[in-house]
Specification:
- The protein is α+β, with helices and mostly antiparallel strands.
- The chain folds into five domains: 7-172, Creatine Amidinohydrolase, Chain A, domain 1 (3-Layer(aba) Sandwich); 177-430, Creatinase/methionine aminopeptidase superfamily (Creatine Amidinohydrolase, Alpha-Beta Complex), CATH 3.90.230.10; 526-630, PH-domain like (Roll), CATH 2.30.29.210; 666-751 and 766-803, PH-domain like (Roll); 820-925, PH-domain like (Roll), CATH 2.30.29.
- Helices cover 34% and strands 22% of the residues.
- The protein has 27 helices and 39 strands.
- An eight-stranded mixed sheet has the order 27-26-25-24-30-29-28-31. A six-stranded mixed sheet has the order 4-3-2-1-5-6, sandwiched between helices. A five-stranded antiparallel sheet has the order 13-12-14-15-16.
């Protein structure tokens, strides 16, 4: 048998079995030997005999008898199985085998008489302890002559039997790390099949109003596990159903796992679904209830059921008696909603592992066993026979609610859920729209159910709604009507907010006064000072300079810059100081404690480069040393000041509470942005009790607390070269000597660079293989990140929810220097793949204005104005004009007011005007100045002429009339840039052609040489107005290729 056996696992587990047996607790104390006999029966799925074989060896061994005696172990099996078992029978040189009884292997004879082998085993049983009672699994009864003859032999020998199923189950219930990882994988696959297949399928059925039988739907779930896309990369041959999926609806409910899905059609009310998937022999279980248009009472009962499960998870801890946990939950239900006690399921779950249901470890009021760390349970609780008062038909009158998860018992904390499928009302409620409700309700559609992100998500994916209105307004009309409502609220809300904020003055911080020495005793007594040389006191960061024969200290902060030059035989050192009127740097202003004092602006020192006889050194050496040391001290001081400035305003964070549990959600091999050091470093991100910790390979640590995260964004690798977890923080944190409000963790999923020198061929096997590997890598990374996110959301009880950008709603734009894809999420507008990242919180946005929206331009700009008017507006440049309508639709769905105009406005001046005089601004109509009455071209020109802005105005006729007295040169450029672009007409209209106009201009030029200045000016004005008038009559622009060559500039 070419199959390997995990010897280490066998030795560990057989030692545990013998250790518990020797303790002699419960049934173990009665038995002298343990007999496990396994026959052949295809119908038996779960049996304790096969479970203990799988636990010890990793495989089921049919027609095998195992006898565990006090000092020896005997296996009777066929020749092939004996060869397989030799791997553990030969213990020579294996330290782990110490303490394990020796194994005797007996080969089963082909004829059905195995009397000689049976006699050897009976003899061993007689020699074990008292040799009277054997422990067996009394429920396991295998058919066949072989098993019958063995059982008859035991009976004939007069050996007593005791059932040890419960104590063996308790021994196997505590899972090792390897077993836990298999069960977690099984739970993850169950979650994937439920979320990606079953839930989606139910959505489709409800969407299309299909009639589907429960049994058919259950069969389709069983077929789904044959498809790799639902298995999270697992091999389909290692995956099987623990039991046929149980789907119930329409008033017929039985909240047990022994029932089967009936053949009734699925009713659109409360739909319960139970499914469990087995991975490599280890089981998992998941139960959820989907509700279609649930009445409020049903929602309340469901929310209460979630609270009951939460209470149960708190009770399930290491060392707690199962009955105590059950009774505590019953007391909780009795206290909160006593009428539901009778409706609660009679048991709340059971232990699970290789066997789906462990009958001796059921969560009920009688079970006295204590829970242990590492046990895995299937908790399942529900309310049966509930009455729907709104129900009219029989199938609507009764309903049941049923939820369940696979959980792991911890030492002190509440049990950990291994099936993190969301189960809040917004995740399991399917809200359908009626035609008359559709215009009013935007947040009750299937998109909300799908995304679980509230009203915004629902609006963003509104096309997933079940019914589309038939007699509704056009999208543009609906948008305009909604925008009108928003405009009315906007000014009132902004006025109220500004009135509340009035009086909050920003105190301007005075520049720190740096005193060199507080008293004379601190002044250094150095030789250089006595000799009237420049001395630098590094301790007090002070330069002591001789001024009129007196040693005068100047703090390094007062020195603006220094320069040194050599001219002939002398070296000059020039020192410039900060004084009122000189710039201190960006945003610092000229803030001095005593601006009226007398200031030294500049000092220059001169020293000879010639060495005089008797001098130990050249006099200029002092200046050269001073120049070097001042530079060093200045650099050190500026670095420290910059660090202190970075720390200003940093909100002190709570300490991270480290969870020492090994099963913490963790992602390895990630890079952090911004970098901790100059070179980027890999590290791991781990979720703890109240926050994340990133640990680099060098040992650097960055802590991010959950309560400091404003937006947690997961950017999948679809269409991107990196996969990103981005955190936009409420308050900045310090690392790498800088403050940061955006921190992201990413890993690369493909080659960012391509070797252009490499020969490319369409059918190159290496390239095809590389592409396939990249696809697999993307899928693997996506699954790992999603799994991490789900675990974190479960750990934080969904207080921290990750937002996923909607790529379909994304648009190109340049918020910084380069163009990137900006994508909306449920609560923000983001780009996280480029650096620096771009994150705008939608709740903080007052309005959005579109600039340069004109028919002949391909791009426009987006200006985002915040509710905090002191905050600088955000500009997104170069947005393609074909994105205008989708952006409008998205903003409208998010209840954000938008306006548009043809000009670029001076937003710095506008915002300053509003902040300086908010009352005046709102008395004049507030933000309505951005919103023209109509969107026609005439209205555009009117609004342009009224706008008082210093930017370029692309209107036509009015400017020409105002500037009629300008020179022809101005006229030429004016017509070229604006007049002709606005004109529309026909060549048949009256007026002079271009050649005639040019000839008139030339005559006017010649005449102007012989006339005085006044006449010349008049001629120029007449010529210009003549051309202007003629041009207005024709309104035809000549071909671009004809007029530049003929046009003459006026001298």
């Amino acid at each position: 048998m070419a199959v390997n056996l995990d010897k280490e696992a066998y030795y560990r587990r057989i030692k545990r079995l013998y250790s518990n047996w020797k303790k002699g607790e419960d049934e173990f104390g009665k038995v002298d030997a343990i007999v496990v006999s396994v026959g052949v029966d295809e119908e038996i799925v779960y049996a304790k005999s096969t479970a203990i074989q799988t636990w010890l060896f990793g495989y089921e061994l049919t027609d095998t008898i195992m006898v565990f005696c006090d000092t020896k172990i005997i296996f009777l099996a066929s020749k092939k199985k004996v060869d397989f078992l030799k791997q553990v029978a030969i213990t020579k040189g294996n330290e782990n085998a110490n303490g394990v009884p020796p194994i005797t292997l007996l080969t089963r004879e082909k004829n059905e008489s195995n009397k000689a082998n049976f006699d050897k085993m009976i003899e061993a049983i007689r020699g074990s302890k008292e040799g009277k009672m054997v422990g067996v699994f009394s429920k396991d009864k295998f058919p066949g002559e072989y098993m019958k003859s063995w059982n008859d032999t035991i009976t004939a020998e007069g050996l007593e039997k005791a059932d040890i199923s419960a104590v063996v189950a308790y021994t196997m219930a505590v899972k090792e790390d390897g077993e836990l990882s298999l069960m977690k994988k099984a739970a993850a696959i169950t979650s994937e099949v439920y979320s990606k297949f079953f839930k989606e399928r139910v959505m489709e059925i409800v969407d299309a109003d299909e009639k589907v039988r429960h049994s058919k739907l259950a069969e389709s779930v069983e077929k789904a596990i044959e498809e790799k896309k639902y298995l999270g990369g697992a091999d389909p041959s290692t995956v099987e159903m623990c039991y046929p999926p149980i789907i119930q609806s329409g008033g017929n409910y039985s909240l047990k796992f022994s029932v089967v899905s009936d053949k009734n059609h699925m009713h659109f009310g409360a739909i319960t679904c139970a499914m469990g998937i087995r991975y490599k022999s280890y089981c998992s279980n998941l139960v959820r209830t989907l509700m279609v248009d649930p009445p409020q009472e049903m929602q309340d009962n469901y929310n209460f059921l979630l609270l009951v499960e939460e209470e149960l998870l708190k009770q399930l801890k290491h060392g707690v008696k199962i009955s105590d946990a059950y009774n505590a939950v019953q007391e909780y239900v009795k206290k909160e909603k006593s009428d539901l006690v009778a409706k609660l399921t009679k048991n709340l779950g059971f232990a699970m592992g290789i066997e789906f249901r462990e009958g001796s470890l059921v969560l009920n009021t009688k079970n006295q066993y204590k829970l242990k760390k590492g046990m895995v349970l299937s908790v399942s609780l529900g309310f049966a026979d509930l009455v729907n008062k709104d129900g009219k038909k029989d199938e609507q009158k009764k309903y049941a609610l049923f939820i369940g998860d696979t959980i792991q018992i911890n030492e002190e904390d509440a049990a950990t859920i291994l099936t993190p499928v969301k189960k809040k009302i917004k995740n399991v409620g399917i809200f359908l729209k009626n035609d008359d409700e559709e215009d009013e309700e935007e947040d009750g559609d299937d998109a909300e159910e799908l995304l679980g992100k509230g009203a915004r998500s629902a609006a963003l994916l509104a096309d997933r709604t079940r019914l589309l209105g038939k007699n509704e307004m056009t999208a543009e009309e609906k948008r305009r009507a909604h925008q009108k409502e928003l405009a009315n609220h906007l000014n009132e809300e902004a006025k109220r907010r500004l009135t509340e904020q009035k009086g909050e003055q920003q105190i301007q911080k005075a520049r720190k006064s740096n005193v060199s020495y507080k008293n004379i005793s601190q002044m250094p007594r150095e030789k250089d000072i006595r000799e009237m040389k420049i001395f630098i006191d590094k301790k007090y960061e002070t330069v002591v300079m001789p001024v009129f024969g007196i040693a005068t200290p100047f703090h390094i902060a007062t020195i603006k810059n220094i320069s040194m030059s050599v001219e002939g035989d002398y070296t000059y050192l020039r020192i410039n100081f900060y004084v009122p009127g000189s710039s201190l740097g960006r945003q610092e202003g000229n803030i001095f404690p005593n601006p009226d004092a007398t200031f030294v602006k500049e000092i220059t020192y001169r020293a000879s480069n010639l060495k005089t006889p008797g001098d130990p050194s050249v006099p200029s050496t002092n200046l050269q040393n001073a120049f070097r040391i001042i530079k060093e001290v200045q650099k050190r001081y500026k670095t420290r000041e910059a660090e202190e400035k970075e720390k200003e305003g940093i909100v002190k964070q709570d300490s991270l509470v480290i969870n020492l549990n090994r099963s913490n959600p963790k992602l390895k091999d990630l890079y952090i942005r911004p970098n901790i050091a100059q070179k980027r470093m890999q590290g791991s991100l781990e979720a703890h009790t109240n926050g994340f910790r990133f640990t680099s390979v060098r040992g650097d640590k960055v802590d991010i607390l959950y309560n400091n995260i404003k937006h947690a964004i997961f950017q999948p690798c679809d269409g991107e070269m990196i996969i990103v977890l981005h955190f936009h923080l409420r308050n900045a944190i310090m690392f790498g000597k800088r403050r940061h409000t955006d921190v992201q963790f990413y890993t690369e999923v493909g080659e960012i660079t391509t070797d252009l020198g490499k020969h490319q061929h369409m059918h190159d096997r290496d390239d095809l293989y590389a592409e396939q590997m990249e696809r697999e890598m993307r899928h693997k990374l996506k699954s790992a990140f999603k799994n991490f996110i789900e675990k974190v959301e479960t750990l934080t009880k969904e207080e921290l929810e990750f937002e996923v950008p909607f790529r379909d709603l994304g648009f190109q734009g340049a918020p910084y220097r380069s163009t990137c894809l900006l994508q909306p999420t449920s609560g923000s507008l983001v780009n996280t793949t480029e650096w620096p990242p771009f994150v705008v919180t939608l709740d903080e946005v007052e309005l959005v204005h579109f600039e340069r929206v004109q028919f002949h331009l391909k791009n426009f700009d987006v200006v985002i104005v915040y509710k905090d008017y002191n905050k600088k507006v955000t500009m997104i440049n170069a947005v393609p004009v074909n994105s205008l309508d989708p952006i409008k639709e998205w903003l409208n769905s998010c209840d954000i007011k938008y306006t548009e105009g043809v000009q670029s406005l001076n937003w710095t001046k506008i915002m300053k005007t509003i902040v300086d005089d908010p009352e005046g601004f709102f008395e004049q109509g507030g933000w309505s100045f951005l919103d023209p009455e109509s969107e026609g071209s005439g209205a555009e020109e009117d609004s342009e002429s009224e706008m008082e802005d210093e930017t370029f105005n692309p209107s036509g006729d009015e400017e020409e009339e105002e500037e009629g007295e300008d020179s022809d040169e101005d006229y030429d450029s004016e017509t070229e840039d604006s007049n002709y672009s606005e004109s529309v007409g026909s060549e048949e209209e009256s007026g002079k052609d271009w050649d005639e106009l040019e000839e008139e201009a030339r005559k006017a030029d010649r005449e102007s040489h012989y006339e005085d200045d006044d006449t010349a000016a008049a001629a120029a004005a007449n010529s210009s107005s003549s051309i202007n008038n003629n041009n207005k009559k024709r309104k035809v622009r000549p071909p671009a290729s004809s007029h530049p060559s003929k046009k003459k500039r006026r001298s």
